[in-house]
Amino acid sequence: MAMAENGLNGFGARFENWRRWCFANGRHVGRAGSAEGGWRSPQHWYPEDPRPPAIDVPDAVLVNQAFTSLALLAPRQARIIKIITFRPYLRPQYQAQKLGIHYLQLGEAYHRAKLALAARLSD
User: Fold this and answer.
1) Distance separating alpha carbons of residues 81 and 39, to the nearest angstrom
2) Interval 70-93: pLDDT, tens
3) How far is CA 87 from the centre of its chain?
4) Class of the CATH-defined domain 9-24+56-123
5) How many CB atoms lie within 10 A of CB 97?
6) 9 with 3: CB under 8 angstroms?
7) Residues in contact with 73: Cβ distance below 8 Å, sequence separation at least 6, in sequence order
């Protein structure tokens, strides 16, 4: 299904930008990290790895406001986005159990939740 057909015309890039912004700014509390794991040697022996595109902060804030309003108006849709997007390390069966659906319906539920977020963003 093409992007124009499913209603998410330019939303995929905006959603990914928002997801990266949430992880970078501590909006999402993930697993605990160690101080040793964050340390990097000051020597540069290899060329730097390619970096992802810069985060568009104003757009990420707009998507975050839309997500917050979605959480107030349709908490189930927001919970689906929250669990699938910010808890990728959970098994799909456990994600589905937390959401109260069958694990084969996760993709469809996630798509519908993203459509609801895109609709909130276009308002």
Assistant:
1) 32
2) 999 999 999 999 999 999 899 999
3) 9
4) mainly alpha
5) 13
6) yes
7) 120
